[in-house]
Every structure is written in structure tokens, then in C-alpha cells.
Amino acid sequence: MRKVPLGESLRIIRQGSLNWLAQRPIVVSFEVTDSCTCYCKHCDHAGPRDMSRDLAPAEYRKYMKVLRPCVVQVSGGEPLLRADLEEVVRNIKSDSGLPFIILVSNWSHMTEERYLGLRRAGVDEFCVSLDFPDERHDDFRGLPGLYRRLSEVVPAAAAHGFDDIVMNNCITAANVGEINAIADRVKEWGVNVNYSAYSPRRTGCRDLFLTSADQLAALDRGLEKIKARMDESNWITNTVSTLDATREYFHNGGMPNCKAGLRWLVVTSDGWLQPCSMQFQRFPLHEQARMVREFTCNNTCDECYVSIRSYLDKSFPQLLRENVSDFFSFKSRA
Q1: pLDDT tens digits for 169-185?
Q2: Closest residue by Cα to residue 192 from 236, 128, 126
Q3: Does residue 334 lie within any of the structural domains?
Q4: Are residues 25 and 80 in contact, defined by beta-carbon separation less than 8 angstroms?
Q5: Do residues 132 and 104 make contact, with C-beta atoms less than 8 angstroms apart?
Q6: How many CB atoms lie within 10 A of CB 214?
Q7: What tens digit of pLDDT does each residue of 225-272 get?
Q8: How far is CA 175 from CA 1, 74, 131, 136, 140, in A?
Q9: By residue range, what is the domain housing residue 310?
Q10: Which among 7, 22, 110, 141 is placed 20 to 30 Å from 172, CA to CA?
Q11: Can you spell out the DSSP letters for 246-279?
């Protein structure tokens, strides 16, 4: 994975430090639509939804002015369903180059042209879901032909050389034995891989959560091999501490002390603040401080260890060391 240029890294560090001290979120996830092209087994966003109440592109400016995150996830549903997605991104990005924008998508509607257009609009990283290293991905996502599309579009986009595509594998009981096969496929495509953990909170289904001794043993073997491979290059984007915490999450059946609403939060497609995508207490834009008092300070939920949490569920010095300062470059983005 390409490193973030030094000047941009310093701006991220500065804004993140200010937000930490002011108890504003470091990362904001904008769910720009609830509509989706897939029917994923592990997700509560499925199929087409009413998009008439989705925020207009210009409305995102006021959220950025109030919340001032240094990193933004643009997600859904499936964000590529929005024909005006590039305009949404342009309204989120400031002249300073912040925030660092991550587009989270299944890529069912991605083309080379749109990939390049979204880069020009301000997307810094493309996070693409991959559950299996073959056509089983289609069955899990409920969308025939999706894996074949990924196998064509991902390498074609990667060939442009920007090194900004990360395949995200959500570890479940169904694919825990495929962790390294997925890494092999991703490396073959010339992109990067990130691992996150399944949460039963979205759907209430615990069948995909790792519980048996065999499943946990497969997880341990898979993650140990992944850690041993991390010296090959930086194409595996997790830190060792995050992989270890992911293992702990599954072995313990949860992870306490969640800081949703404080370190990160979600903006729904119609403009409400939520602590996370799986907690449905809603607050107006200017009441994030009340969200912290009423939700974060009393939060006992331990049912997820998704990527956004795994990167922020650390002390501030560790956050800086692992997620910013270890990944800066003296080279410009160009």
C-alpha cells in the first residue's frame, strides 16, 4: 500500500490531535445511501431502498464544518448507486487535502473510468469487499457475476499504478479457512488486503460468528500465517496489534470498552448522527457532545470489532504510531 505523503500525514496528525482533545470524532462514516445492489448474508442493508431522502452533495459541507474529521469513510448501502457520488466527494474534500477519504463499496457498478473520476474528485483509498477468493463470493453477496466483475475491474484499475485499492475481508465462520487464499488472490490482482471481523449485531445471526474450537483454531493458524507474511511487503494493511485484537474478539466472544460516538460516528443517509451503523440512537448534527454523554459514556455493547473500531480502539500514541506515522512518505502523491 502506498504511503501517505509527509505533508498530508502531518495535517492528519494535527487535525486528529485537535479532535482527540476536543472530543470530536477522528473518523466519520457517511452512509450516503441505504440502497444496495447486494443481499449479503452478514449485512442489514440489502437491495434497493428509497433514495429520495439521501442528503444532497452540498449538504455534506455543513457536516464537515461541524465535525471536522481527519478521515472520512463514504459508504452505504452501495455508494456507487449515486450518480452524483463524485460531487458528494468534492463537497467532503477541503482545499487542504483533508479529510483522507476512503470509499467503501462492493464495486458491482465500478468501471475504470469511474475509478479514475472518483480519484480526481478526492477519493484517497478504495475499500472493496471480498468474502471468498472465487465465485463463492457471489453466493455470499447474493449477486451472480460479482466475483467475475471484480476479477476484471480490480486488476485493470490497479494497473494504473496508484496503489490505492484495499480488498476488505470480513472474517466469518464460512470463510475463516480462506484467509490466506484470499491474500493470495489479492496479491495476484496487484492490490492490498485488510481483515475485519464479523458482527452478529447487524442481522442477529450468530451462525457466522466463530464459536467452535475448530473455527477458532483455523483463525489462529490463518492469522499467524498472515503475520508471518507481512514482511513480504506492506500489501497486508492490518497492524499486528489489530490482528491480535481480532483474534481476542472472537476467542472472548466480544470486545468491551467501545468508543463509538466519540472516536468515530456515522452520519445516516438522511443526515442524522448515530454512534455506529449498528446502534440506532439518533442525534441532530450539533449534538455530538450529547451523544457522547448519553451513549458513549454508558455504552456496554461489545458485539463488534469492525475495521473502523479496530483502528481507533487504541491509545492516542499507539494510534499515531501505527496508523499515521509508520505510513508516511517523503514522496509527493504525484
Answers
A1: 999 999 999 999 999 99
A2: 236
A3: no
A4: no
A5: no
A6: 12
A7: 999 998 776 789 998 999 999 999 999 999 999 999 999 999 999 999
A8: 24, 26, 7, 10, 10
A9: 4-329
A10: 110
A11: HHHHHHHT------BTTTEEEE-TTS-EESBTTB
